[in-house]
Amino acid sequence: MELNKYSKNVTQDPTQPAAQAMLYAIGLTEEDLKKPFIGIGSTGYEGNPCNMHLNDLALEVKKGTNDAGLIGLVFNTIGVSDGISMGTYGMRYSLPSRDIIADSMETVVQAMNYDGLVTVVGCDKNMPGALMAMIRLNRPSVLVYGGTIASGCFKDKKLDIVSAFEAWGEKVAGTMNEKDYKGVIQNACPGAGACGGMYTANTMASAIEALGMAMPYNSSNPAIGKPKQKDAIDSGRALEHLLKKDIKPSDIISRKSLENAVRLLTLLGGSTNAVLHFLAIAKAAEIEFTLDDFQKISDSTPFLADLKPSGKYLMEDLHRAGGTPAVMKFMLENGMLHGDCLTVTGKTVAENLSELPALQEGQQIIKPLNAPIKETGHLRILYGNLAEKGAVAKITGKEGLYFSGPAKVYNDEFKANKGIGKGEVKKGDVVVIRYEGPKGGPGMPEMLKPTSAIMGAGLGKEVALITDGRFSGGTHGFVVGHVCPEAQEGGLIGLLEDGDIIAIDAEKNQISVDLTQDEIDKRRATWVQPPLKVRKGSLYKYANTVSEASQGCVTDQF
To answer: DSSP letter string over 508-553?
Structure first.
């Protein structure tokens, strides 16, 4: 079997002398040109702890490919730091970056005729973007996650990135002085690695490992240390057997493996962003998987992980307790995983896990089945007159299961942040932040800043928040996002007024406003669609091509 079936188009074709000359120029030999070429796509850049070490990891991957007799060739693509852009106009570029990453990785591998792909990724949108590219290309591929950050510490209190956001809320509320505020933000992030709780990066990394597209322990190995370096090298080496066995993403990603991924993230209490991303991943793989599938899995999966943002522990703690494979082993033993799904090791899920240790005895992070944090999953897909095409809630049970109150309406995140800071939001309110959807934002920004301010002000259990935008994996509280149709497209969320009574029922999975149809019709008759907030550039292209949230916000649906 030919292992260089793509690269031979430029390395072995005598009518491609210029291509071969350029390859000699980069230091390859005639013998090298007979070997398979592996693209190593890194989202490394200096401006973000999640990504600052990825170019170094890409070189470790290259060692692995070279050890296996392959030619690893590193290339780079973009990344956007959610933590740095959060609360600014720049956050509108975060979700669009997912599709730019997918497009750019697909472009390089196709254009350069690479035979396989290893992606080295860190922050939230890197992972689904890279995976979407792998699926489109359908060449032997492995995803390498850069790993989780170590915890910070200030005044003997364990910190992470959300500690910094919530410190701002405490400062605004007058419960934290300036010195302690500075102390928290200067010590929350001690170095390289993605945000430490079960936020979007760790959610997606864990789920992709369960999906079978990453090596065992890839998602739970910390960013710094020899295990992560070995992980990268082993991932590079893995391309040899993937090429020889011709194992492609289409052989690994199936309806059953998607269920494995979503069930794991449900048990761990993962980010609502995973809903958007796995809808897009399923679409790329041409597998029917809808919002209702998330609800079915959530209904049959207990929430067991005491992990931040709603819990106590960080990913580094889960690593010490056995890591993602130990959680998967627990799930397999309790009938919660399809063990026959193929993985990038060339073995099935069950075969991988049979060789690996179980959760450490006495660990406190994963609760027993007879004492769950919540008997069903935290992800709730809500429908009603406020979300005819669905909305996504993250309800751990700690916030309660029902909330009703008067609307406090803001037409964008920035107005909401100012209003919360001025004390406009009162106990019992349902904060509404609209015109922040995929088209209205544009870019469907995350609302971590307002939710953190609410938590920091001590109103986390007293206030609900709904939006056609989305939430960071670090968000917790009684929150509902992805309201669809969005305000920009004429959704009912765009017709709400202060004082309207909104009810959110996480048991019946409903979200509605107490308005008669006559009143709704009256308001709709006077509503005028606002112009897009942008008239040029990448966000303008995004707003004009992106699908609605219930379809995963994909840009290649046409």
So the answer is: TTEEEE---HHHHHHHHHH--PPPPS-SSHHHHHHHHHPPPGGGT-
Look at the pTM and tell me if it is higher than 0.85.
Answer: yes
CA distances to 256, 269, 393, 417 from 282, rounded to whole Å, are 11, 21, 20, 35
* Res. 532: pLDDT tops 70: yes
Categorize the per-residue pLDDT at 169 as very low, low, confident or very high, splitting at 50, 70 and 90.
confident
- Best CA proximity match to 101, nearest among 141, 130, 66, 134: 130
User: Which range among 156-160, 203-207, 319-323, 359-363 shows the weakest confidence by mean pLDDT?
Assistant: 156-160
Adjacent-strand bridge partners of 55: none
Choose the catalytic residue: 151, 472, 547, 550: 472
Residues contacting residue 299 through CB under 8 Å, at least 6 positions apart? 376, 377
CA distance between the termini of the chain: 36
Q: 158: which 2 tokens? A: 């364990």
Average of per-residue pLDDT across 488-505: 98
Of 118, 109, 111, 112, the residue nearest 137 (C-alpha)? 109
Residue 543, number of CB atoms within 10 A of its CB: 22
pLDDT at 80: 96
Instruction: In whole angstroms, give the CA distance from residue 312 to residue 57.
Output: 30
Residues shown for the chain: 558
**Residue 183 CB-density burial (10 A; 0-12 exposed, 13-18 middle, 19+ buried):** middle
Q: Read off the pLDDT of each residue in 304-317 and give the average, rounded to a whole number.
A: 94
Residue 453 scores a pLDDT above 70: yes
Q: Which residue has the tokens 């609605």?
A: 548
Q: Is 470 helix (H, G, I), strand (E, B) or coil?
A: strand
Tokens 């909330």 belong to residue:
403
d(CA 386, CA 481): 11
* pLDDT(108) > 60: yes
pLDDT band at 451 (very low <50, low <70, confident <90, very high): confident
Clarify whether 235 is annotated catalytic: no
Q: Is the pLDDT assigned to residue 558 strictly greater than 60?
A: no
Residue 495: closest CA among 525, 534, 532, 531: 525
Q: Is the pLDDT of residue 457 over 80?
A: no
415-452 burial, b if ≥16 CB within 10 A, otherwise e? ebbebbbeeebeeebbbbbbbbbbbbbbbbbbbbbbbb
Say if strands 116-121 and 141-145 run parallel, antiparallel, or are unpaired: parallel
Beta-carbon contacts of 246 under 8 Å, excluding residues fewer than 6 positions away, are 1, 140
What is the share, in percent, of the chain residues with pLDDT greater than 70? 99
Contact 381, 291 (CB under 8 A): yes
Tell me the two tokens of residue 341: 């799904």
